[in-house]
Amino acid sequence: MIQLKRTNSDNKYFIELVEILDADLKIRDGEDHSFYSQFNKIDHIKYVVIAYECGKPVGCGAIKEYAHNVMEIKRMFVLPETRGKGVASKVLMELEKWTCELSFSKCILETGVKQPEAIGLYYKSGYQLIPNYGQYAGVDTSVCFEKHMI
């Protein structure tokens, strides 16, 4: 059974999961990794969700304020051995719920073209493709999405 816990970026399990995520992204992104890593710092993130299976941390995600009424989803990750169990969907739904509780009306996010699992998750979860925003504008290896909260 998957259990979700809300926390912040000081959580040691979040830090450990993000280290594994960054190692994976370094391989996937190749030469582009240094560009992306500058935008993925985790210090001072107030809203983090960690997924646990049988007491073991297996996935995470975070939101941070991007603009008025807009939260940006960051650092979504599930351990490879736990994928296919709906963990990422549960983490994403909890982040969306938290976004609504904080009275934000939209989530945006960026992912890489070399992350087809993430792209599939976001489409399946009702996200719509948008033009690349902010620092990702004009970056061919980025894909950006948004979802309006009800």
Please describe the structure with a list of short key phrases separated by commas or semicolons:
7 strands; 150 residues; Aminopeptidase; NAT_camello-type; Acyl_CoA_acyltransferase; GNAT_dom; transferase; alpha+beta; GNAT family N-acetyltransferase; 4 helices
The separation of the N and C termini measures 28 Å
Shape: globular
Mean pLDDT: 91
Order of helices and strands: EHHEEEHEHEE
CATH superfamily: Gcn5-related N-acetyltransferase (GNAT)
CATH topology: Aminopeptidase
Secondary structure: helix percent = 25-40%
Secondary structure category: alpha+beta
CATH architecture: 3-Layer(aba) Sandwich
Main-sheet strand order equals: 1-2-3-4-5-7-6
Q: Helical element count?
A: 4
Cα radius of gyration in angstroms = 14 Å
The CATH first-level class comes to Alpha Beta
User: How many DSSP-defined strands?
Assistant: 7
**How many structural domains can be distinguished in the coordinates?**
1
Major sheet characteristics: 7 strands, mixed
Uncertain segments: none
Q: Strand portion, in percent?
A: 25-35%
Structure description:
The chain has 150 residues and is an alpha+beta fold. It has a single domain, classed as Gcn5-related N-acetyltransferase (GNAT) (Aminopeptidase, 3-Layer(aba) Sandwich). 31% of the residues lie in helices and 34% in strands. The protein has a 7-stranded mixed sheet, with helices on both faces. β2 and β3 form a beta hairpin. The protein starts with a strand and ends with a strand. The mean pLDDT is 91.
